[in-house]
UniProtKB/TrEMBL annotation:
Keywords: Cytoplasm, Disulfide bond, Endonuclease, Glycoprotein, Hydrolase, Lyase, Nuclease, Signal, Vacuole. Coiled coil: none annotated. Its EC number is 4.6.1.19. Residues 257-281 are annotated as: Disordered. Residues 283-400 form the RNase T2-like C-terminal domain. Residues 269-281 have a biased composition (Low complexity). One of its GO terms (cellular component) is extracellular region. One of its GO terms (biological process) is RNA catabolic process. This is Ribonuclease T2-like. InterPro entries: Ribonuclease_T2_eukaryotic (IPR033697), RNase_T2-like (IPR001568), RNase_T2-like_sf (IPR036430), RNase_T2_His_AS_1 (IPR018188), RNase_T2_His_AS_2 (IPR033130), RNaseT2L_C (IPR057328). Belongs to the RNase T2 family. The active site is at residues 78, 136, 140. It is found in: Cytoplasm; Vacuole lumen.
C-alpha cells in the first residue's frame, strides 16, 4: 500500500526531544534515511520503515488504586497504540496473529527479564495479566505496520510480538510519570486536589511543551496518554513528542484527585540510596534485593541471573544462614562465584558462602569490592566480577531487606 512521508528528515529532528529506544539483537530490515510519520508530502511505499496508516503512536499508562496494581511509586503500562494522525484508528488488523501464551513465548525467546518486568509494571486491574497482554497485542500491535512479518530478515515465528512488548516497555521507561509529577509537587493524597493545568504543566515541561491526554474516573486521575510521531520504524527509530491527534482529556479543570495506591500492588523500582547506609531489616537474612553502589550512590541492582541492570526490576534474593556466613539464591537457582564472576543458576554446583561488611555490603574472600567492565545503560547488562583484573569499574553490592 502506498503511503506518504516528507522524505526530508535526516539525523535528529531539530527542536524536538527524541526518545532513543535501545535495541536488542534486531533482525528487521535496514531503514536508511528514515522519515517522520504523520508528516506527509511525498509518496513512501516502504511501510516497514515508515509507520502508516497508524503514524501517531500513543504510549498509555494506568494509575490503578481500586484495586491497586503495580508499585506504589510507579504508574503501569496500558499499551502502545497506533492512530491515523487524526484520532481514528484500526484494530485487530491480523486475525492470524492473535497470539496467546505470551509468557511462554518470552521464555522460549530467552526473555525472562522482560517477562519479569511486565509482571511488575504491565498489570491488569482484574488480575489477568496474560489476557491483557494478548489483547493489547491483538488489538493494537497487529496494526503497527513496522511489525509486519515481512519487515524481518530470517523471520522467526512471533519475533514481532517480542519486539512489540520490548518496545512498549522501553518507551514506558523513558516516561516516569510518577517522578515527573512528584518533581512538580504533585503526589498521591487522600485530601489534596490538583488542577488540570498543574498536571499538564508538569508533564508538558518534560516533552518540549507538547501536552498529554489525561484520563479521570469520578474526578480521580487514572490514565495518561503520551503522543509521538516516529522517525523510522518502531523497532529502531526515534520517538518524537507530538500533540494529541484526537480524543481530549476527560479530567475536570479543577479538583482532580490523585489517590494513593493501597500498597498491595507489589513490585519494586530501582531507588537511590547513599553508600554506607544500612536499609532496615537484618543484613543478608530472608528476602531482599542486592543493590549496586557505584560512585557513592545506588545505580541499579542485580537481576535473577546475578548480572547488573540499571533500568529494570530488581530480583528478589533469599539469604540463608550457612556456617559463619550465608548463601544467596534467586529464581534462577543458587548463587556463587564461578570462574571469577558472580552468577546464579544451574552452573552453580555448590552455593558460595558469603559474609557481609559492617555497612551491609556483600563480601567475598574478605573484600567488599566487586568489579565490572563498564556501567550498563538501557537494556544492557553487565557481569560482576570478584577480581579487578581487566575490569575498570568498582562497585559494592548492598543488601536491601524485604523481611
Amino acid at each position: 500500500m502506498l503511503q506518504y512521508g516528507d522524505g526530508a528528515f535526516g539525523g535528529s529532528v531539530p527542536g524536538h526531544r527524541v526518545a532513543h529506544i535501545p535495541a536488542f539483537e534486531r533482525t528487521t530490515v535496514s531503514c536508511p534515511n528514515p522519515q517522520l510519520s504523520c508528516h506527509n508530502t511525498t509518496a513512501v511505499s516502504n511501510t516497514c520503515c515508515f509507520n502508516a496508516p497508524g503514524g501517531q503512536l500513543l504510549q498509555t499508562q494506568f494509575w490503578d488504586t481500586s484495586p491497586s496494581t503495580g508499585p506504589s511509586d510507579s504508574w503501569t503500562i496500558h499499551g502502545l497504540w497506533p492512530d491515523h494522525c487524526d484520532g481514528t484508528f484500526d484494530s485487530f488488523c491480523d486475525e492470524s496473529r492473535q497470539y496467546t501464551d505470551i509468557s511462554g513465548t518470552l521464555q522460549d525467546f530467552g526473555r525472562q527479564d522482560l517477562l519479569d518486568y511486565m509482571n511488575t509494571y504491565w498489570k491488569d486491574a482484574g488480575g489477568d495479566d496474560e489476557t491483557f497482554w494478548e489483547h493489547e497485542w491483538g488489538k493494537h500491535g497487529t496494526c503497527i505496520s513496522t511489525f509486519d512479518t515481512d519487515c524481518y530478515v530470517n523471520y522467526q515465528s512471533k519475533e514481532e510480538l517480542v519486539d512489540f512488548l520490548q518496545d512498549t516497555v522501553n518507551l514506558f521507561k523513558t516516561l516516569p510519570t510518577y517522578q515527573w509529577l512528584a518533581d512538580a509537587g504533585i503526589t498521591p493524597s487522600t485530601s489534596k486536589t490538583y488542577t488540570s493545568a498543574q498536571i499538564q504543566s508538569a508533564l508538558e515541561s518534560q516533552r518540549d511543551g507538547h501536552p498529554v491526554t489525561l484520563g479521570c474516573s469520578s474526578g480521580a486521575l487514572d490514565e495518561v496518554w503520551y503522543h509521538f510521531n516516529v522517525k523510522g520504524s518502531v523497532q529502531t527509530g526515534q520517538f518524537v513528542p507530538s500533540d494529541p491527534d484526537g480524543s481530549k482529556s476527560t479530567c475536570p479543570s479543577t479538583g482532580i484527585k490523585y489517590l494513593p495506591k493501597s500498597g498491595s500492588g507489589g513490585g519494586s523500582t530501582t531507588t537511590t540510596t547513599s553508600a554506607g547506609t544500612s536499609p532496615t531489616g537484618s543484613p543478608f537474612s530472608g528476602k531482599g534485593y542486592v543493590n549496586v553502589v557505584n560512585g557513592g550512590s545506588q545505580n541499579g541492582c542485580l537481576i535473577s541471573a546475578g548480572v547488573w541492570y540499571t533500568s529494570g526490576t530488581c530480583a528478589t534474593y533469599t539469604a540463608s544462614s550457612s556456617g559463619s556466613g550465608f548463601t544467596l539464591s534467586s529464581s534462577k537457582g543458587n548463587c556463587g562465584v564461578v570462574s571469577g564472576s558472580f552468577t546464579c543458576g544451574s552452573s552453580v554446583s555448590s552455593p558460595t558462602v558469603f559474609t557481609s561488611s559492617s555497612s551491609n555490603q556483600l563480601t567475598y574472600s574478605g573484600s567488599a569490592s566487586w568489579y565490572a567492565s563498564s556501567v550498563p545503560s538501557g537494556s544492557d547488562q553487565e557481569t560482576v566480577y570478584s577480581s579487578s583484573s581487566g575490569h575498570s569499574v568498582t562497585v559494592q553490592l548492598q543488601w536491601q531487606s524485604l523481611s
